Amino acid sequence: MKKFVISATFVMSFAALSAFGESMTGYISDSKCGLKGASEAHADCSVKCVKGGATPVFVADGKVYKLADPSMVADHVGHKVTIDGTLEGDTLTVKSVKM
Questions:
Q1: 72: closest CA among 45, 98, 53, 42?
Q2: Domain positions in the chain
Q3: Residue-wise pLDDT tens digits, 43-96
Q4: Spatial contact of 57 and 91, defined as CB atoms under 8 Å apart
Q5: N-term to C-term CA, the chain
Q6: CB of 90 within 8 A of CB of 65?
Q7: What is the pTM of this model?
Q8: How far is the C-alpha of 44 from the C-alpha of 93, rounded, in Å?
């Protein structure tokens, strides 16, 4: 029983950390270019790719994050932004976006 309680506590702690609120600064890029699109110089290309069917993604600290609701960043494709949200695995649920 003691091992079960310790294991359950560990699992619950890990789940809580993975869903922890985040505030990150990075670029809204496109799924086609990903990390390459994380710059001011790539903004026009990101916009074209998203209009062409690519999905917006968030790039920060050398990592590419999927967005749970890409429509939350539709007006910010190609821009450097700060996102407040919840990160679970590699998917970011956006609560707010600031330029």
A1: 98
A2: 21-98
A3: 999 999 999 999 999 999 999 999 999 999 999 999 999 999 999 999 999 999
A4: no
A5: 51
A6: yes
A7: 0.78
A8: 25
Please tell me whether residue 85 adopts helix, strand or coil conformation: strand
Structure tokens at 50: 């998203």
Two tokens, residue 15: 């789940």
User: Among all chains, which residue has been given the structure tokens 């003691």?
Assistant: 2
Q: Could you write out the DSSP letters of every residue in 49-72? A: HHHTTPPEEEEETTEEEEES-GGG
- Give the CB-side neighbour count of residue 59, counting CA atoms within 13 A: 24
Amino acid at 44: D
Q: Which residue has 């999905």 as its token pair?
A: 55
At 69, the amino acid letter reads D
